[in-house]
């Protein structure tokens, strides 16, 4: 039995012949391909998306079948839609059969020590900053905005990269410039905002709003390269466009049923208790799986088939 703790790393990683496990995050695992002598290569990584789901800062005990594959395929599709804006780290989708569909071989980059976030709509931490002082990440915003309001322009709101189990903290843009230099900081900001704008142009036609997104960049020489996953429900807030109504918390496209059940009396769980949430009922798992598939199919216009 898994013991869920807030944002705890998962149990023993999958053994993949020909690869060495190097790191496990909340929902993704990294491996290094082994060379002919059995040594880990230093130029590539295998990025494996799991079926794990986080809610209320817990990794739930119930995996969502195919979530890792759906998000991997969605990310690959977005990389193609963005390739005229930014190069990406993808090398190949020829991966071990044990992780087929949910893993990507990528170029190993020198990762920027900054979480690059852009917000098109106001909610979460951005809303808290706005309520406190009328600005978000140093950008003054109009008066009268509420939870869910669309911003006049997307805003770059970088954050620190916190270790697993801790929360990312907002990072003043001046600190980003100190870390990266003014030139690289400006390029990362422009690209992050451009990715969110392009994402929303495409998603809007398909009934989804992307409230905000977090992207990760690495360097290949002097070139900024888009890494990790991009514009997925794990890295972004997806909202159903037809239910968008500023003034209250918007329903999450993917996690609505999970959150609704966990806070309902049926779960018997108290969010404030510090206890691990209980396993999800099968129908909540199935309806959540269906939301990931729906997001993929609406956005890409392709049908998702597992395996
Ligand atoms: C990458 N992480 C680990 C340390 C671990 N293309 C890439 N090249 C190099 N590194 C990475 C990628 C990608 N994608 C490394 N995640 C992605 C995450 N960090 C988190 C903080 O602690």
UniProtKB/TrEMBL annotation:
Q: Which CDD domains did the record assign?
A: SAICAR_synt_Sc
Q: Which GO terms describe its cellular component?
A: cytoplasm
Q: How far does the signal peptide extend, from start to end residue?
A: none
Q: Which UniProt keywords apply?
A: ATP-binding, Ligase, Nucleotide-binding, Purine biosynthesis
Q: Please name the Pfam families in this protein's record.
A: SAICAR_synt
> Which transformation does this protein catalyse, written as a reaction?
5-amino-1-(5-phospho-D-ribosyl)imidazole-4-carboxylate + L-aspartate + ATP = (2S)-2-[5-amino-1-(5-phospho-beta-D-ribosyl)imidazole-4-carboxamido]succinate + ADP + phosphate + 2 H(+)
SAICAR synthetase/ADE2 N-terminal domain location, by residue? 22-273
Task: Supply the SUPFAM superfamilies for this chain.
Answer: SAICAR synthase-like
Superkingdom assignment? Bacteria
GO molecular function per UniProt: ATP binding; phosphoribosylaminoimidazolesuccinocarboxamide synthase activity
Query: Its annotated pathway?
Result: Purine metabolism; IMP biosynthesis via de novo pathway; 5-amino-1-(5-phospho-D-ribosyl)imidazole-4-carboxamide from 5-amino-1-(5-phospho-D-ribosyl)imidazole-4-carboxylate: step 1/2
Enumerate the Gene3D superfamilies for this protein.
ATP-grasp fold, B domain, Phosphorylase Kinase, domain 1
What residues form the membrane-spanning segments?
A: none
Q: Which GO terms describe its biological process?
A: 'de novo' IMP biosynthetic process
Its EC number(s): 6.3.2.6
Which InterPro entries has this protein been placed in? SAICAR_synt/ADE2_N, SAICAR_synth
Q: Which HAMAP family match?
A: SAICAR_synth
By sequence similarity, the record places it as follows: Belongs to the SAICAR synthetase family.
Q: Which named protein is this? A: Phosphoribosylaminoimidazole-succinocarboxamide synthase
Q: Which organism is it from?
A: Pedococcus bigeumensis
The organism's lineage is: Bacteria, Bacillati, Actinomycetota, Actinomycetes, Micrococcales
